[in-house]
TrEMBL record:
Alphabetized GO MF terms: flavin adenine dinucleotide binding; oxidoreductase activity; UDP-galactopyranose mutase activity
Record organism: Desulfarculus baarsii (strain ATCC 33931 / DSM 2075 / LMG 7858 / VKM B-1802 / 2st14)
Superkingdom classification of source: Bacteria
The name this protein goes by in its record: Amine oxidase
InterPro entries in the cross-refs: Amino_oxidase (IPR002937), FAD/NAD-bd_sf (IPR036188)
Residue intervals of the Amine oxidase domain: 23-276
GO cellular component: cytosol
Length: 456
């Protein structure tokens, strides 16, 4: 059991939260609702939401930072998003497809490949029937073949995941798959997101803008943290300011946090941080004239290497408000996710053209059709990879940081992909505040670690 953190703090501690994504905003709201501590939320950019933010371009197209939909088994999440003064959320049924060998197959692929022509479907069915099943400790690559059979692994799981994760699947663990990868049980409605919510206006980022408003001047934008002095307990901002803290919640990518600490962390902590793997992701949004074709689902997966993107989101399917004038008869908009190796910085030559060609190949755009709007954005750290041995490195890093009074939480702060969604992030933020103010533990974080410890 964790020792209540508050027992080690001054009477009225000052808690600083780094980042105004879902984790930092939920932490800020929890802090705003109490009187035991002074607090402040610092956000480097001029807008809130982090990876879950949205923007409207000059033509009126709304772009999310990758396809984002809302779902959760935690009732507190919807209360945060859609309480009084927050966003109006609209419920939708999932319509997701996979484009394979020139055919559209309903998602999950392993439950619908039988709709392919017999020559394509038969070997996949035979491989699935003969699959031996998973054994503990398998790499993700081995797990895919063991659960779905080699033909399905070769057709979908290996190429799709190699494209997405940008790291060898043999070096990834299979500990995270339970809530993230569908079984091959023929159920079309698999998964926590078979129904989902999406804001009626303003894209996925709208609820976070509303949450930020409730923080008032407790939130500072354009306040980039450059260094953290763990000895003097001060934060150094890019504009030269120094701020004191007693407890810190950081939501920036964990390796970046380690690199910012003064004095420098011990060599074994730096080595553990250096072993963490992640991908980067280019987002390319294309706004086009004309309505969406009937075959366009809300989101579409592309396992084959001929397509530069791993997934396309049809922004209009989440609601016409994502289009100029909310006019789905005049406009359509596709948001492509193009994974890249971690550390990528330069836009690949021909990126936008390659996305256009992919749309044409999938029948979603016509040759010669010119986009009326083009949006590009790099997410330098998008998916924290569940690599083999990651748990030991993460345990070492989080124990070291918590000893300094620093709680690194959220998708990239915690670095646990299993609890890397928006609802998990918000809950981690809220529960980290509870811990700093005296609660014995952080239920979501502790539960995930209890699961991982069984396999460590
Ligand atoms: C492509 C993609 C698709 C996704 N789809 C879904 C989905 O459909 N459903 C779902 O639930 N989740 C989805 N997610 C996950 C979701 O984006 C995250 O769960 C969520 O944004 C994590 O919130 P966070 O606050 O932990 O981190 P972030 O969103 O990364 O926010 C961190 C914030 O910290 C700020 N920051 C960083 N460094 C500093 C610094 N030095 N000083 C000050 N501020 C700093 C950043 O600017 C940022 O605003 C998706 C993620 C990706 C990448």
């Amino acid at each position: 059991m964790n020792r209540p953190y508050a027992s080690r703090q001054p009477k009225r501690p000052r808690i600083v939260v780094i980042g105004a994504g879902p984790t930092g905003l939920a932490a800020g709201l929890a802090l705003a609702g109490q009187s035991q501590a002074d607090w402040l939320v610092l956000e480097a950019s001029a807008r809130v939401g982090g990876l879950s933010g949205s923007l409207r371009d000059e033509r009126g197209f709304v772009w999310d930072m990758g396809g984002h939909v809302f779902f959760s088994s935690w009732p507190g999440f919807m209360a945060l998003l859609s309480g009084p003064g927050r966003a109006t959320m609209v419920e939708r049924r999932r319509r997701a497809k996979v484009f394979y060998s020139g055919h559209w197959v309903d998602f999950p692929f392993q439950s619908h490949f039988q709709t392919l022509p017999p020559a394509l479907a038969a070997p996949l069915a035979q491989g699935l029937a003969q699959a031996p099943g998973a054994t503990p400790g398998q790499s993700f690559a081995a797990w895919c073949a063991a659960v779905y059979g080699r033909p399905l692994a070769e057709a979908f799981f290996w190429p799709f995941n190699a494209k997405l994760w940008q790291t060898p699947l043999e070096g990834m663990s299979s500990l995270w798959v339970d809530r993230r990868v569908a079984p091959a049980d023929g159920r079309a409605d698999w998964g926590p997101n078979n129904h989902y919510f999406y804001p009626a206006q303003g894209g996925a980022g709208r609820p976070f803008v509303a949450m930020a408003r409730a923080l008032g001047d407790g939130l500072r934008l354009k306040a980039a943290v450059e260094a953290i002095d763990a000895g003097a307990r001060t934060i150094h901002l890019a504009d030269g300011q120094r701020l004191a803290w007693d407890g810190l919640i950081s939501t920036m990518p964990l390796p970046r946090l380690l690199a910012m600490l003064r004095p420098a962390p011990p060599a074994r902590a730096l080595a553990a941080a250096a072993r963490l793997k992640h991908n980067a992701m280019w987002l390319v949004g294309l706004g086009l004239a004309g309505p969406m074709p009937a075959e366009a689902a809300a989101w579409m997966y592309f396992p084959e290497p001929e397509f530069i993107f791993s997934r396309l989101t049809n922004m209009a399917a989440h609601g016409p408000a994502n289009l100029p004038g909310a006019d789905a008869r005049r406009w359509r908009a596709y948001l492509a996710e193009v994974p890249a190796p971690g550390g990528s910085a330069d836009q690949p030559a021909g990126l936008v053209q390659a996305v256009r060609e992919g749309l044409i190949r999938a029948g979603l755009a016509q040759p010669g059709e010119r986009p009326v709007s083009v949006f590009t954005r790099l997410l330098p750290v998008a998916y924290p990879a569940p690599t083999l041995g990651r748990e030991d490195d993460l345990r070492l890093l989080h124990d070291f940081l918590e000893g300094l009074g620093v709680f690194s939480r959220g998708r990239l702060g915690g670095w646990l992909y299993e609890i890397g969604n928006m609802d998990h992030a918000a809950r981690m933020g809220q529960e980290a505040v509870g811990r700093l103010l005296g609660a014995a533990g952080e239920p979501l974080w502790d539960e995930q670690w209890a699961l991982l410890k069984q396999s460590m």
